[in-house]
Amino acid sequence: MKQKTVLKKIQEIILPYLDEPYEITLDTHFLHDLMINSVDYMSIITDIEATFKLRIDDFSMYCIKDLIQFIMKNSKKEDWN
Asked: Which pTM was predicted?
């Protein structure tokens, strides 16, 4: 599984929740940079969990880089829809 593939999928999940377009990179911080509310934050977590078939703890959602590392380490599915 490639980091770029995971990043692209995460971007596809997050972008509909943003009020304004934002370039999501590895260094993007969920709450500080994306300025999402708590309801959207929980929805994003749920969408990511469903997509990658895993459970995410809050410590893995600090920034995009941390989340990708967590997904690459813990996800068993290579082909996500």
From this structure: 0.85
